[in-house]
Amino acid sequence: MEKILTKKSFPAWVKKLQSYTVYAPEKQENLWSYEVIQNPDKLNLEHLNTVQAPKKITFPQREVFLQFNTSKEGKPQIKEVLPKEQPTVIFGVRPCDAKAITLTDKVFGEEPKDPYYWSRRNQTTLVGLTCNTPPSDNCFCLSVGGSPHAKEGLDILMTDMDDKYHLDSLSKKGEKLIKAAENLFKPVSPKEKKELEKIHRESEKKIKREVKDIKNIPDKLKNMFNSPFWDEEAMSCIRCGICTYLCPTCYCFDITDELTSTLPLNGKRVRTWDTCQFPDFTMHSSGHNPRPDKASRLRQRILHKFQYHVENYQDYLCTGCGRCISLCPMGIDIIEILNKVRDHE
Amino acid sequence: MNENIYIPKLAKIIKIKEEVSGSRSIKTFRTQFVEKNGFSHQCGQSAMLSVLGKGESMISISSSPLEKDFLQFSILKMGRVTSALHETEVGEIIGIRGPYGNNFPIENWKGKNLIFIGGGIGLAPIWSVLQTALKKKDDYGKLTLIYGARTSKDLVFKEELEKLNKKMKVHLSVDVEEKDWKEYVGFVPQNVTDKKPSPDNSISITCGPPIMIKFVIKALEELGFKDEQIYTTVENKMKCGIGKCGRCNIGKHYVCKDGPVYSWAKLKTLPQEY
Ligand SMILES: Cc1cc2nc3c(=O)[nH]c(=O)nc-3n(C[C@H](O)[C@H](O)[C@H](O)COP(=O)(O)OP(=O)(O)OC[C@H]3O[C@@H](n4cnc5c(N)ncnc54)[C@H](O)[C@@H]3O)c2cc1C
Ligand code: SF4
Ligand code: SF4
Ligand code: FES
């Protein structure tokens, strides 16, 4: 279903979605961040790349798995804590970030399914926004099978057309949002349709960065496991973990217990994001570490994304959002690395 | 929604035995679930044990699947969780979720000689296979155990090992010379070379520290064992147990679900990163 919505009516639509928690990008001290929208009148969708992808909503950095305590009889008790029921809409989702959510869907959807992830995910509607101009200098979605107007993972794709938005509703969840304020939407005229196609075509031309011959990369990497290449590339890394924490597709996590009191026993078991860039990610208690240095950990990041994940799920674990490049304090650039892999003997 | 895979089931500790004392202490625990459930394991699988407030640790189930009355775990005291387990007493409640991982393909080994090779706590993961093979002795050929530890005090299952001597060949070793030690002195791989188990119609099952495994495999290859005749387990650090938290991988494999049991033929094809 395709519709037109004037920009003037956009706040009115959002106001009709009272039963949802509504997130959209908000500028905070010059950085863009997905926040709960209190005042739809202030909403605008002119954001650049948010520092954190909407992953922070569908897969929060910290979430409680269970609570435990001791009963009056002194017996330990465990109580499952599932996320609360709260339908959520996220506006302004970039196509690469939506694609990233479909990638984590596959990992957490494989049997046995992850109940925490799915209880949030099933309640979330993703409203995307075409990147008429790239939201970052390091966008390379075209190289990894995406595009600035890709629909994968989205429930609605909105495209900015000056004083109005074109909306492409792509799922039942999407239809439901539009039905909440049906009278605000107009049909799409043939002229508007033409205009839309032009915007989409142009948007692709504006993507400047590229990984070359990416189809050959997985095979190429297979033969580079023992190459000194990784030492060279990892030399400047300060192992801050930013590249993975802020990556929309990275999903590795830790499970730990947090105590409120020991006597009587009271606490929570929580899941938190973790990263392959930290030494203790893989370090055994004995001190033995299968990935003991920066080189082996950079190699893991690249191989997971461009070899192992392709072998397991037939897709790259990277959507070309460019965050790991723009935000790495040391300027380590995944595109450059992949292009060097291509040229590696 | 299916059963929540992250919620442990409560189990009572019914027996604790100190196998090794001192700084590298090892204890064997027997547990029974507080409420009946569908938990059923195969040889080589592990379970996530919880001490609430401390966390979780992946531990091999050392009892045979044929043993229906309890689950047994032998645990080396290392850090947070394993130390907390060592402080528990009979009657206390812990959490268990699982079982996780693949298993030793013992059905395919019928009629074959089995050579068990263990180092230190590495006897625990192979104990379930060994016990199962003993209970169904007619199904298998000759059974041999080659097992060693740093010192005689560090050997686990000492009582059981003595009884085992009557049912199968047992070759013990300690790393360095000791007073009154009558068996082999040297590392486990050297003892393998010394005892020369025959590869004919045989399968070898090796568990222990990564460095020991590497050298045992070398020793077995020198004796003529083919890659398909050598089985081992890999114990990478684990958190989820179900292939999601991302840390236990060797290449595209997640050891928690695609392992921990590997034939050398298979393990060889993966990146050597474990
Ligand atoms: C498949 C498998 C089977 C195992 N079987 C046994 C066994 O039968 N007996 C035994 O004594 N030990 C076994 N281990 C090792 C045991 O899991 C670790 O020694 C234990 O988790 C250390 O936890 P800790 O809290 O005491 O140590 P800490 O150093 O405080 O560890 C903190 C956390 O790190 C993780 N961790 C650290 N080291 C390891 C490791 N080597 N493997 C997995 N997770 C780790 C655990 O989640 C642990 O809770 C096995 C490991 C695996 C992977
Ligand atoms: S962001 Fe850069 S410096 Fe930080 S861990 Fe990643 S590659 Fe290393
Ligand atoms: S690897 Fe880098 S470019 Fe690719 S999705 Fe992650 S942050 Fe974006
Ligand atoms: S332990 Fe989490 S992926 Fe294996």
| Alpha-beta content class of chain B | alpha/beta
Number of helices of chain A: 12
Oligomer: heterodimer
Distance between the first and last residues' Cα of chain B: 35 Å
Strand order of the main beta sheet of chain A, please?
Answer: 1-9-8-7-6-2-3
Beta fraction of chain A: 15-25%
CATH architecture heading of the largest domain in chain B: 3-Layer(aba) Sandwich
Number of domains of chain A: 2
Question: What is the count of β-strands of chain B?
Answer: 15
What kind of sheet is the major sheet of chain B? 7 strands, mixed
SSE layout:
The complex is a heterodimer of chains A (345) and B (274).
Chain A: E1 2-6, H1 10-15, E2 21-28, E3 31-36, H2 55-58, E4 62-70, E5 76-80, E6 88-93, H3 95-109, H4 115-121, E7 124-129, E8 156-161, E9 164-169, H5 172-179, H6 190-205, H7 217-222, H8 229-234, H9 242-245, E10 253-261, E11 266-273, H10 294-313, H11 323-327, H12 334-343
Parallel strand pairs in A: 2-6, 6-7, 7-8
Antiparallel strand pairs in A: 1-9, 2-3, 4-5, 4-11, 8-9, 10-11
Chain B: E1 9-20, E2 26-33, E3 46-51, E4 55-60, E5 71-76, H1 80-87, E6 93-100, E7 113-119, H2 123-135, E8 143-149, H3 158-164, E9 169-174, E10 184-185, H4 188-195, E11 202-207, H5 210-222, E12 230-233, E13 249-250, E14 253-254, H6 255-258, E15 261-263, H7 264-267
Parallel strand pairs in B: 7-8, 7-11, 8-9, 9-10, 11-12
Antiparallel strand pairs in B: 1-2, 1-6, 2-5, 3-4, 3-6, 12-15, 13-14
The structure holds flavin-adenine dinucleotide, iron/sulfur cluster (SF4) (2 copies) and FE2/S2 (inorganic) cluster (FES).
Describe, in plain words, how this protein is organized in 3D.
- The complex is a heterodimer of chains A (345) and B (274).
- In chain A, 31% of the residues lie in helices and 21% in strands.
- Chain A is built from 12 helices and 11 strands.
- Chain A has helices spanning 10-15, 55-58, 95-109, 115-121, 172-179, 190-205, 217-222, 229-234, 242-245, 294-313, 323-327, 334-343, and strands at 2-6, 21-28, 31-36, 62-70, 76-80, 88-93, 124-129, 156-161, 164-169, 253-261, 266-273.
- The termini of chain A are far apart.
- Chain B is α/β, with parallel strands linked by helices.
- Chain B folds into 2 domains: 9-100, Translation factors (Elongation Factor Tu (Ef-tu), domain 3); 106-233, Nucleotide-binding domain of ferredoxin-NADP reductase (FNR) module (Rossmann fold, 3-Layer(aba) Sandwich), CATH 3.40.50.80.
- Chain B has 7 helices and 15 strands.
- Chain B has a 7-stranded mixed β-sheet with strand order 10-9-8-7-11-12-15, with helices on both faces. Chain B has a 6-stranded antiparallel β-sheet with strand order 4-3-6-1-2-5.
- Chain B starts with 8 loop residues before the first strand and ends in a 7-residue tail after the last helix.
- The structure holds flavin-adenine dinucleotide, iron/sulfur cluster (SF4) (2 copies) and FE2/S2 (inorganic) cluster.
- The site of one iron/sulfur cluster (SF4) has 12 residues of chain A, from helix 9.
